[in-house]
Amino acid sequence: MRHVIIHIGANKTASTTLQRALFRRHGGIHYVGEDAEGYDGYAPLVNSMVNDDDLYFPFAECAELFRKHLGEETHKTLLYSNEDVMTSRVPTVCARRLHAFLPDAEILLVVRNQYSAIPSFYASHGAFLKPAPPSYFRRHVSYEDWMRFQLMFAKYGALASFMFNRLLSVYAGLFGENRIHVLLFEEFVENKRLFMEKLADILRINAVETSKLLQGSHERKRISNRMLAYNKFRTSFLWGVPISDYLPFGGTIAGRFGKFLGGGRSARVAVSNEMKQVIYDLYCEDNALLAAKYGLPLAEHGYPIKSLN
Q1: Is the entire prediction scored with pTM above 0.85?
Q2: Which of 96, 100, 117, 175 could join 112 via S-S bond, C-beta 3.0 to 4.6 A?
Q3: How far is it, in rounded angstroms, from Cα 114 to Cα 11?
Q4: Is 123 a domain residue?
């Protein structure tokens, strides 16, 4: 039987690094997903699979896409990767579609401590207002404001994507509990060799080649402190005014200034005790169930977790 893996994320767990450095380059993988060969041609299909209601989803076309890839390079592991699955607006519908297209697949999820994952997600996606009308697009949003807004839609917004056990239970029900694999982002950071050995075993690929491809790779680094601070300043000072248009050699200066803003330390997001408590309350029970079900040392890595005793 063809070995098939569906990698569903999660967000801020080095998914882009895995996709670009490993999945699309390893000789033992037939990769389908972002940055894969030909992805631009089928991106609308898989994006629709993740986000659209049945009214708009081209089921037959997407089924044909996966059928085609199942028949190619059958000696390799077929790997479909899409971290947007975790933020799907129709999560159970998306899971059922994936099961219909790849019924014999195993599921891979990399999880991350919500205390660090959520501020990181905010820095990349929440600090700059979007979607929004053009005159408001990318204005600065404070962490506290973003969190309070997300809490208004906790069942369907960004915060829902970090309910790892709840989301995995859907896939376990469809694909089987024994087909679920969970890895820790903290091991990727702190003990990359162990992480890569576990990943290679799940994917059934050569571990030496895996190690070589991933060594030193880091894609989509968090935005810089400088960029975050500058956007906050510009939001309240001459927003929408292209200052470079009024300066001699404005284009050159803007380019150099942009490089400067992109450098320096990664953005540090201050999290109040109030918001830490909010995160604990949201995820402590779900994490406890996740740890017990899959034998994960979440408490050792400081996850918000509640004792089940």
Answers
A1: yes
A2: 117
A3: 10
A4: no
